[in-house]
Amino acid sequence: MKQHQQPWTRNELILAINLYCKLPFGKMHKGNREVIELARLIGRTPSSVGLKLGNFASLDPGLKARGIKGADHTSKLDKIIWAEFYNNWEEAAFKSEMLLQAFQDQAIPTAEKDFEEVIGKEKERNVRTRVNQSFFRKAILASYNYTCCITGISQPELLIAGHIMPWSLDEKNRMNPCNGLAMNGLHDKAFEVGLISISPDYKILISSELKKNKTEPVQTYFTEYEGREIILPSKFLPDPEFLKYHNYERFLG
Length: 253
Prior knowledge:
The protein is mainly alpha-helical. The chain folds into 2 domains: 3-123, no CATH class; 144-250, no CATH class. Helix content is 49%, strand content 6%. Helix 1 runs antiparallel to helix 2, helix 1 crosses helix 5 (76-87) and helix 5 (76-87) packs across helix 6 (89-104). The chain is elongated.
């Protein structure tokens, strides 16, 4: 059987969806260096990896909402792995990062049992938190194409991958990319303290507290954005229910 005809294994699919989460939608092609690197790690061609990323794109509800279909040759196992991520981002993200590290270190698991043995020593809380926070940042910034959803600033060093539902209040959705927003540090802080919010239909809301402030900086950096639609991500649209929570529970109004 030729290489490209070999069925994808569970571990290969976990690594593919890990990469899917961390790449901007327009960069999921065979010429991307990260696609090439994953292909090398798992012994497949860059074209094969690119096609598999397209399969996952067809399962992404955020893309479906934008009328983007992706590839149409998903397997039963593709759907199973996708569902595992969507139903438990916290665990799936961590396991996929540890699996990637195992492949990079050439401690390659051949079965689920072996995989658990490889990551078993790395399950301390501080390691899990650090690994997951890194994954979340990469996933959010990639979804927004490394662009602030408020201002359009596209300098990665100035961007923060923030949560809509706070990290401390919603453990289940800590790692859910639909619970994330890419913003510059100033607007991220304003969102965190409730001075700004985003409506469920993705319009920017400015608090009365800020609107009272007539100084030029506040007018320039906040008031003039009121009512505008945010720059939407290419994947993982913000969940309207999370935005409703922020509107009613966090926003100063």
